[in-house]
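Quick entry, no commentary yet.
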Amino acid sequence: MKIGIIGAGISGLRLARRLDAGGIAVELFEKARGPSGRLSTRRSDVGAFDHGAQYMTVRDVRFREQVDAWLADGVVSPWQGRVVRWAGGVLRPEPRQGERYVGTPRMSAIGRALAGSLPLHSGVRIERLSREADHWTLVAEEGTRFDGFDAVVAAVPAPQAVPLLEAAPTLRDRAAGSEMLPCHATMVAFEQPLAADFDGAFVEGGPLAWVAREASKADRVPGERWVLHSSADWSAAHVDDAPEIVGKTLIEALGALVGGSLPEVVFETTHRWLYARPAREGEGETLWDATLRLGACGDWLRGGRVEEAFLAGDELADVMLSSLSRSPVR
């Protein structure tokens, strides 16, 4: 039996790892250059930027077990940075609700640890699926075909899953009804340290929603590098703005936040996450059509936290392992 998993973010990787451990062959397909999804890291001449998910927290015992294993292996470390909240012109300490963890030496280390030696086709965007004689074929946008899959899972953001789920209307409609919110991430490095008595800040009002100092995380190279995340409302209103305009706006907002002029910028770039997080918390359902052997998973079925993405893949693995053991492929 061979299963194709489209998307090598945390959900797809956790699903693949569980199925592989259950003795089922898997192949991962990822449109980016490597695994990790929104735990990706952008490298530059001035150092790395975690421009997607900024850190992880733990609530569920299943994720606790995984994070403890990552801690033991040096894949993650606690983040001891000072985090505040800016609202109405006032900075206040943000109450800590459990430990915050970051990948080491960058957030993408988490995805790479999950991927391990699993078969991964990177830089491949799967555009559609076709089914013949109980087997699936995955068709890439340039026409390349990957044949002979007994089952397929779309582990991608809901809007991207819709065309892949066309053969299963119930699954397709569930994905089509899931709204996802955008976010812009500006990565900026300054010549001198900022006059900021914090390492991370939640921001209320204006274009910013979050800012973080990269060097405050474990095993990062020195340097005054910051990641600036826009608010979902602002990004939605400026979704097609040029990256240069977005970056200028977010850097100016950072200047207003720290209350003074900023040092000279030595590096700046902006990335748009079109599907950054689900608009609403999901109910944690699993999407699996046992007859077609077609499924979907992702944080959009649960919530926007890293833990939710992990659990979405974990729970679909439970369903698939049980289903496929009862109905072996002929």
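second:
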Amino acid sequence: MPQLEQPAPRSRLARFNEIVTILLRNDAWGLVRSMTSPPPEGGEEDNAPVQLRQTLEELGPSFIKIGQLLATRPDLVPDRYVTELKTLYDKTTPSPYDEVRAVIRHELGRDIEQVFASFEPDAIASASIGQVHRATLKDGTKVAVKVQHVGIEEAMELDFEILRGLVSFVEKTFAASRLWQPREHLEELRLMLERELDYTVEMRNTQRVEHNFRHHPEVHIPKMYPELCTKRLLVMEFIEGVKFTRVDVPEMANVDKKKIAAIVTHAMARQIFLHRLFHADP
């Protein structure tokens, strides 16, 4: 198997200095305070949510993942922050196409042209751990190809070492922060990321969900291609769709939204109470 060229390893001190510099330059403590304050009044522009999102992006993948987690917690984070942080799900800066080619070559032992009939160089979505490209298999099947960013696992391990120290300092210095249970949330995030960094886990879970809904034609789970899936590469059936939140797009004009809501609600309940396996990214 060809070797995948990894970024030069960074020292803990160098990365710690980088993180602290970015936090200080962007007045991180002021951004945290703004989350617990009401929005500006009198038409004054509220830039804090955008500044927080940009700061997390500048800090890198581990912090982007924290932002994604915060976007799922409207009980902790004001709505205006949730809306902005949701853009971290699939609108981060993608890796260069050369790196994508290198990952596929490393994982499958073949070049892109040997595996796919066509492969779109531009990612249709990019997040903290990987990015997604449209492609076509040799038999004409349209697929979505999820490719992990090079060096992401090593970078995240280093960041979590540093974050443990920072979180411990914050808890000791600012007693009010304990209300958010930062250490517990950080450990939960670390365990979650450990599984997310292995795409074969996602592949197997998706296959299990597909099997569980095999007698429910109203629920369609993308087909996986296990022979093309590895720890850093995921290939699945490509399905055109519209996000639930995009009710304003033309494709949703003639859709029975109540019926869709009922299908989704029943599917979620079935997963939680019957299957005991919950797909968190419908």
